[in-house]
Structure formats: structure tokens, C-alpha cells
Amino acid sequence: EDQVTQSPEALRLQEGESSSLNCSYTVSGLRGLFWYRQDPGKGPEFLFTLYSAGEEKEKERLKATLTKKESFLHITAPKPEDSATYLCAVQAPNFGNEKLTFGTGTRLTIIP
Amino acid sequence: NAGVTQTPKFQVLKTGQSMTLQCAQDMNHEYMSWYRQDPGMGLRLIHYSVGAGITDQGEVPNGYNVSRSTTEDFPLRLLSAAPSQTSVYFCASSATNLGKLFFGSGTQLSVL
Fold first, then answer.
1. Residues of chain B neighbouring A34 (CB-CB closer than 8 A)
2. What is the rounded CA–CA span in Å between residue B103 and residue B35?
3. Site from B74, B100, B107 to mutate, A interface, most A CB atoms within 10 angstroms
4. What does pLDDT average to over chain B?
5. Is B99 exposed, middle or buried (0-12, 13-18, 19+ CB in 10 A)?
6. What is the mean pLDDT of chain A?
7. For residue A31, what are the CA distances in angstroms to A26, A42, A93?
8. Using 50, 70 and 90 to split pLDDT, how confident is the model at A95?
9. Which residues of chain B have a pLDDT value below 50?
10. What letters, b where the CB count within 10 A reaches 16 and e where it falls short, cover B4-15?
11. Which residues of A touch B90 (CB under 8 A)?
12. Cα(B38)–Cα(B41) distance, rounded to whole angstroms?
């Protein structure tokens, strides 16, 4: 059974204090790994797709990386508006969106 | 751009009542799906559709029905509400089968 574990559950950072969020996964092969951002009271918003180990994607202060067992979401010099819950999901090979497995998320709070 | 629109935003039901959660998208996406989000658990797939007239069950389909008569609309019906169906429900759509989902803003449902 595919599993996704995100850590930490919650993270509080001072504005400008860089850190990383972790997404560990167990899946038989990997078709894709996805990062989403979810603001309170809203639906998740797509951030990145990673397909193979060694791949990196960047968007503003966020950079996602992928290894064969985990993915990291690096946040550089975060601002209060980066506060949100970050979700990770994996997709097994030979399946479509019906086999996305989501983690429980990391709730990130950036303190001004 | 409206994207994915869900109504209502909030709903309170009594045990045994039925209701329909509405979902519409204006992006001409073939794939649409319904998820529920519960505290401490990842998003779980209820039902999905790969095109008009085609629906299938996800991970947690019991107690829910769906239909897809048009590309735009994908309503979720609760047949006889139970307290275990108290949750936040998200509708999502995608242009591909590769995990980039567009989510609605959610419906917070309480069953008393």
C-alpha cells in the first residue's frame, strides 16, 4: 500500500528563517510527486510536480527536491504570506489521478 | 476565471437527511473528483469521473452517489447522512491524468 508521511506536523519560523519540510513516501515505483499549498478555509493549490530522483523545481522562495525515498520543500527567507499547510502527494505508475496518495501535511507558520 | 466552484460553503444536516453538493468547472477538464478531508488524515478520494457519463468509485465511496451528465458539472449526493460523514469536501478537476489538480474552495459539512 502506498504511504506518504510528512514531517514535521507543524513548524513555526521567524520571518527570514529558512527551513525544509519533508515528505517520505513508499510506493512501488513513482509516476510523480506533487506539492500543494492549502490556506485555511480554501482548497489545495498546486505548486510542483517532480518525476525523477535528482529533479528540482523552484517558485519564488520555494524549492522542491526529490530523492528515491523522499522529497523536500525548502523555504528560503520566508515571509508571513508563506504561512499555510503544505501537502505532498504521490502517484503510482500505471495509474492516474484515482491513485493519488496524500500526506497529512505540514502546517507552516511564519512569525513577523 | 472561476475555476472550480463548489456550493454550498457550509451545511448542517440531521442524521438521515439527504443532500447534494454541487461542483462546476469552467476549464473544460475531463477529469473530476470528490475528496473528503478529515483531521489527521490525508485527502481521501470518494468518487471520480474521467468524462461525461463515466464515473467510478474511489477509496471511500460508501454513502455517496455521483453522476456526470455534462463535462462541467459533477454533483455529489449524500443518500442518508450519518455523523461519520462530517467532514470538509473538496471537488477537483484536471486536464490530465498526472496529478495536477485544481480544487474548489470546499464544503464544510456537519451531520448531527
1. 99-100
2. 10
3. B100
4. 95
5. buried
6. 95
7. 12, 27, 5
8. confident
9. none
10. bebeeeebebee
11. 43-44
12. 5
Q: Is B109 on the interface with A (CB under 8 A)?
A: no
* Cα separation, B102 vs B25, whole angstroms: 9
Q: Say which residue, A70 or A28, is predicted with more confidence.
A: A70
Residue carrying the nine cell digits 449524500: B78
| HSE-CB for A82 with a 13 A CA cutoff | 28
Quick check: B58 and A98 CB within 8 A?
yes
Per-residue pLDDT, averaged over A16-22, amounts to 98
Query: pLDDT category, A97, cuts 50, 70, 90?
Result: confident
Which chain B residues have a beta carbon less than 8 Å from that of A4? 42
Looking at residue A33, its pLDDT comes to 96
Grid coordinates representing B90? 473538496
B:31-50 residues touching chain A, CB 8 A cutoff: 31, 33, 40-45, 48, 50
